[in-house]
Write a structure and sequence with these properties.
The protein has one domain: outer membrane lipoprotein receptor (LolB), chain A (Clam). Strands 9-8-7-6-5-4-3-2-17-16-15-14-13-12-11 form a 15-stranded mixed β-sheet. A two-stranded parallel sheet has the order 1-10. Strand 15 and strand 16 form a beta hairpin. 14% of the residues lie in helices and 47% in strands. The longest helix is centred in the first third of the chain and has 24 residues. With 279 residues, it is mainly beta.
Length: 279
């Protein structure tokens, strides 16, 4: 049977519309591992500051990353590099129904205590997208899985959710997104990362649950996360994939925990621009 050209074109456009409809539906209804988490407010200590050193796996190119829990749903993150005259300053708002950071406000913190805005990111529940604004540009990308976390944010929001796992020994998945460093657009969804419990393993003289993390965002490579068994925060993260082109891999190691008031936190930020990383 020979089909008329018009009928062939109608069939072609029907197929195109079908796949477009499927793509929109998929973006509006992402898959989810939220059931793996349960909000446990008693595990959050407002006023706690976690000091980490970020580096390559071999310890090269170290920088200080300090995380202040200013409210149960708010993280303030300060990133200082030695001999650099300003610091990265990021405020994250957590949503404990999504176990994700639904807002990120990034800026530069200056020696005089002022702050220059750089970029913002929000999760839109209307269409399940990540929306980014940087300078005069805007971009968005569909979220395909919740919870979702930004690897380039040093997996800090992911770190903050680990204390809320229902069963810390069951495997789960997270969505991973990242800024676009080389190419078109501002943000991209990298795929899902698989997280599985390996076993108990000591780290920093405390007993930790050790997890393997792997999946599409890391190609054929896999990393490991050591989570304090009692408190639920990451003591160490090692992934042989960089979260920023200035590094060649990712190591995030806890160095110190202390308590601060908001005024003490501000003073700390002013006094530690350009500081040497923790030993």
């Amino acid at each position: 049977m020979v089909f008329a050209r018009e009928e062939i074109m109608k069939a072609y456009f029907a197929i195109v519309l079908l796949f477009a409809s499927i793509a929109v539906t998929y973006a509006q209804h992402p898959t989810s591992s939220i059931i793996a988490f349960r909000y446990q407010p008693e595990r959050i200590k407002v006023g706690t500051v976690y000091h980490y050193t970020k580096s390559n796996l071999d310890g090269s190119k170290p920088s200080t990353v300090s995380i202040f829990i200013s409210a149960a749903d708010r993280l303030e993150v300060y990133k200082a590099e030695e001999n650099v005259i300003d610091a990265a300053d990021v405020v994250a708002k957590m949503d404990w129904t999504l176990f994700s950071a639904v807002e990120l406000d990034a800026g530069h913190f200056l020696k005089d205590g002022s702050r220059e805005p750089v970029a913002t990111m929000q999760i839109s529940r209307t269409d399940n997208t990540l929306k980014v604004h940087w300078k005069d540009q805007d971009d968005s990308v569909p979220i395909e899985h919740f919870p979702v976390h930004i690897f380039n944010f040093d997996f800090i929001s992911f770190n903050y959710t680990l204390r809320h796992l229902r069963d810390p020994e069951k495997p789960f998945e997270i969505g991973v997104a990242d800024p676009v460093f080389d190419g078109e657009g501002l943000i991209k969804y990298e795929g899902e990362a698989h997280v599985e419990f390996v076993g108990d393993d000591p780290c920093h003289q405390v007993i930790c649950r050790k997890y393997r993390i792997s999946g599409k965002p890391f190609g054929e490579k896999e990393g490991f996360i050591w989570v304090n068994k009692k408190e639920g925060h990451a003591e160490l993260i090692e992934i042989p994939v960089a979260d920023n082109p200035d590094w060649n891999s990712f190591k995030f190691e806890l160095k110190k925990i202390e308590q601060m008031t908001p005024d003490q936190w501000l003073t700390y930020k002013k006094n530690n621009i350009g500081r040497k990383p923790f030993p």
